[in-house]
Structure formats: C-alpha cells, structure tokens
Protein: Aryl-alcohol dehydrogenase-like predicted oxidoreductase
Amino acid sequence: MEYRVLGNTGLKISSFVLGTGTFGFWGNNTEKEAAVMLDEALAGGINLIDTADVYSSGQSEEILGHILKGRRQDVILATKGGMPMGSGLNQSGNSKYWIKRAVEGSLRRLQTDYIDLYQLHQPDLHTDIEESLDALTDLVREGKIRYIGTSNFQAWQVTEAQWTSERKNTARFVSEQAPYSILNRSIEFDLLAATAKYGMGVMVWSPLSGGLLTGKYRSGEAVAPDSRAASSLGKLSTVVDPNREENRIKFEAVAKLQTLAGEAGLTLPHLAMAFTQAHSSITSAIVGARTIEQLRETLKGSDIRLSTDILDAIDAIVPPGVTLDALEKGWTPDWLQADKRRILG
Structure:
C-alpha cells in the first residue's frame, strides 16, 4: 500500500480508503461481517475509513462505533454530513444550525470524542459558505473536528470557499471527495486544477463506475440476482442497466477496456483502480466493497501502477475530461433545473 500526504496537511493516508456505504441495511452487512472487512482493510494497509451520517440512516456510523472500540487511535476516521437525516425542515443542509447538530449526532453514533475529517456531503445553495465555515471553525476549536473537507463541490465552489477562509480567517477545507473513474472523467476538466491550486487532497468515489468496471455487467444481459444493482432502486441500478439505451456507449468502452486489461496482464477492476492512482492531484480512491471477497481482490491491486502506453490507450477510449453518462457525476446542480435556466412568462 502506498501512502500519500493529504494536501498540505502533512497527514499521510493510504492510497486506498475503505468506504462504508455498504455497512448497514444498504449493503445488508451485519456488524460481524463489517468487522471482518475492517480487519482485512487494516491488514492490507488502509488507514483511513470513510462514512457518512446518511449511510443506512446512521447505521453505518453506529456499526463503525462498535467495531472500532479499542482501536479508534489506529485509524483516521472521516465522515460526512448535510444530506437529509429526517423529514424536518432543518434536518439537512450546511447551515450552522444543522452542521452542529449533525456533528453531535455523528460523534454519538461513532462513539468517539473527535472526527479526524468532517466533510460537507454536497453543496447547499441556500446557505452562504461563510455560515458553514463559521460553524466548522467553532467545531475545530472545540476539538470535535480536526480537519474539514468538501464533497461533490464544483471548481468555482472550491475557489469561493478558499477565498472566504482567507478573507474571514476561518478554518479551511483541506480535501474534496468527488466521483471519478475511467468512464467518468469530468473532474479532470477543472476541479482537479482548483484543488491543486489550493493544496487540497482529493479522495475519489465510485472508481469502478458503480460496478461497470468490474466487467460483471454486460450489454443485453440481465444483472446477476446477487449484485448490488439487482437490489438497488434508483440511480445505481439505472447506471448499470444493460437495457438502458444511454448505456450502450459505456458498454462499448468497457469491452475495449477489458481487452486492454487482458493485453496488459491485468483484471479490469485492477486496471480501473490503478487508473485513479495515476493522476497527480488524486490522493486516494475509496473502495466500497460489498463482500469480503470483493475487498480482498481489490486490495491485491493496491500497488499496481500503469505505464504511459496503457494510460495513452485509456485516453483513446475515453478522452480526458469526458464523462460518458451524466448520471455518474454524483450531483446535479440546482442551476440546471428548468426554472433556473429559463425566463418564465
């Protein structure tokens, strides 16, 4: 396992991160299964664990709180907040009111006194970033958070936040968490330039493109009954649906990538994970395995690095900065809604 510095923090984190979106009913993982996966990740050299309050409605954090007892100091623990955690009007977003309540909830579920990295799960266009930074700065001073980060931010939002921190002398975001894979390269267009400009680390999620880059989903074939897509509703099942016309170009790219991986003596998942390690602005890739077998197989490729020839061949299949499916971008900005794009008569 390679270790890289998270932005300018001096904090060394593993190039693979354990994502725990499958801990809890979202992944049907019991606490016992989650403990085995945590053991495997730590044995494989992973030292950062990423979760969120919204994962399985808090169950992911609760499971982590139980299985980290006695070894909390052995891991760097990251969580996220801001997504809806109830039906209340103010049970979501990045307001000072909700951030402070959300952090207290995460601390309670995680059974810890502090969070190493607390990330805003997505932008909140109804809240001024200064308001969010004020709340996060208070929590840093109180010792409840050590570092702060963002997730799914656009390049201009990263820049605005950095300028606000400098102007108002608040804590500043040290990392961004964004979707990135061979099939979804939109962050290369400007986001990675912005994070590099401000010395931020970058953790990427969905490096296997929702499972498409495992090779287990094929055009014209039904998904396997035991796959995550088969048990999922909404975006994930749509992203990999072999009968969806919009996915045709993705399946064609996957077939070419499968051939490329074979010629290089690699599995497709190892090729895909190694691709995320090749960009100079990316610190780590989040591994969101559903089973211990998937995690073990992924960890086998943690030290694979791709040659320039292979990277050039990938660029020929999916050009830099290009995303083949808008659904994989992770977050649809409010300003793309019809009422924000049109002058209504």
The mean pLDDT is 92. The two ends are 59 Å apart (CA to CA). The chain is about 35% helix and 15% strand. The beta strands are 3-5, 12-14, 16-19, 48-50, 76-81, 115-120, 145-151, 173-179, 201-205, 284-287.
